[in-house]
Amino acid sequence: MSAHLLPPNATELDKAFSLTFDPAPELTPAIDAMRGAKLVAPPPSWLPWLVYEYGLGELTPYVPNLYDLIREGIDWQRIRGTPAALAMGLGWIGYAGDIEEWPTRRRAWSRFQLRLDRVRDTEDPDLDRIEGIATLSPPLRSRFWRGFHGYDVRPLDWSWQRWSGARWASFSGVRLREGGPKWSFERTHDVDRTLTQGELEAVGAWIEPTGGASLSWGPFPWTTPGIAWTDSGEEARRRAIAANLAARDIYVALIDGNDQVIGYRRARAVHAVSLEAAGAYEVDGVRWSPDAEGKAVYVEALTGFGDGAGSTVAAVALAFDAAPVDPARPGLLWAGPGELSTPTGLVAETPIAIALGETVRERIRFILRS
């Protein structure tokens, strides 16, 4: 029998009316069923209301599937303010990272940065999503300040670092908006290329094969280091070609899908090299070391943040003896189309796919063989 919400002096008629109009017998089964319905298999029409009830609305940009949001968002709420919450949130958008907090001796001790597990896929929307997760997940006293992967140069911290191992400024990276976090990424692209006779002739470095005979007089410097009279003709020939190429000013050209130059980046390292297990440079998993007697040439260029941003590179090539058109800018690092004189044209063109952006420095490494 249903309990009557009647005073003790209720009459039998009052009790009869109470039983007649009591909805409990009809509604109780539905009410009992609703108690677990939102937890087991809520219908789609309930989901926006459940997101509101659980306070998960701020996570909807990062977990668009509301079923996943309700299931995982509640767990995230329970650990919010801990590193585990940040790890869970980054996992939703396909990233992972390690937290680096500022040392307590620093004035901005509440800042932290993320060492991400990979380079971002896109700047929009990926970086906004990472920033959002890194802002919502930590304690209120913490501030997300920087994300990086690959390219990470730190500022000089007096009495804690060597001058030669730091920048005389802030951390490496760029901000996409005022007051936003810094982003610092780097990708590496390797090219192992054997130059053809036509390419070597174009840059004035071709020497006819000796056929096993000694190297005779030719258009190469006889001060070429490492060439001894006891060397075989072919060894001397390759060393002479490598020394010739390594002594030149080189820019790396970035070319788009329409065979138009996006821009040129000055090579930061050009060396004759030889194979060495612990060499300073690595290309396609093989290590090389600078060597005056080397038979190959290592060329490396590192684009700056924002160089050619928004363009897609379809090929890279080399410009030998290149020089800025404007004589007042002899040290030009990045040259746009028409800003560089390329007397030998472009050689060693190699297909590649690179989407240039504001936050990534692209490291392009060549091994040139003859």
TrEMBL record:
This is Phage tail protein. It comes from the Bacteria. It comes from Kaustia mangrovi.
